[in-house]
Amino acid sequence: MIVGSNEVAPKVLVGTLSVTCIAVLYVVITYILFLDNILPFLLNTAMDGFLLIAVVVVAVTIGKPLSYLNCQLIGSTNADGSAYDFTTSLGASIGKYSGELTYSAWIGVTKSTCLEMKAIWGLSIALCVLFTFSMICSVCLWRRSKAFAPLKDIEK
């Protein structure tokens, strides 16, 4: 919808999509390395920390305007919302001179958009919890691997 009407997507959405793609790629690579027993746990802890910071920034940025918004009061638009209704109501939200679409205006266009963004906000909060738990587990696994490291044989 945004691309078809030659509008610039809100930077919040672009940032959220970028962080999500990086996190998915990181989780897949980490999973493969863990299964092969070649995952460096200390490096994994640092990377989990960096992704935790990125996901916290996404959750805060998405959540600022959403926390004040009641999706049930956004109008009588049905949950599907037609493309015409979306484009028509979005036209009033676009900046007059810059042609840039603001995030806070975009989330209040339809009820379905508001509910979808609240779901994304909730999932980003869940990712914060999961990356924190992953950091703690990585530190514990690193300490366990150091405690049970095989001793070197001097005679060989």
What is the arithmetic mean of pLDDT?
A: 81
Query: Helix and strand string, N-terminal first?
Result: HHHHH
**Classification by helices and strands:** mainly alpha
The largest β sheet comes out as:
none
The residue fraction in helices comes out at: 55-70%
Our estimate of the beta-strand percent is under 5%
Task: Let me know the number of strands.
Answer: 0
Amino-to-carboxy terminus distance: 68 Å
Task: Figure out the total of helices.
Answer: 5
Q: In short, what is this structure?
A:
65% of the residues lie in helices and 0% in strands. The longest helix has 37 residues, at 111-147.
Chart the SSEs and their pairings:
Layout: H1 11-35, H2 41-66, H3 83-91, H4 103-106, H5 111-147
Helix pairs in contact: 1-2, 2-5
What does this entry look like structurally?
By secondary structure, this protein is mostly helical. Helices cover 65% and strands 0% of the residues. It has five helices and no strands. The protein has helices at 11-35, 41-66, 83-91, 103-106, 111-147. Helix 1 runs antiparallel to helix 2 (41-66) and helix 2 (41-66) runs antiparallel to helix 5 (111-147). The longest helix is centred in the C-terminal third of the chain and has 37 residues, at 111-147. It is elongated and about 80 Å long. The N and C termini lie far apart (68 Å). The relative contact order is 0.15. The mean pLDDT is 81.
Feature tags:
single chain, mainly alpha, elongated
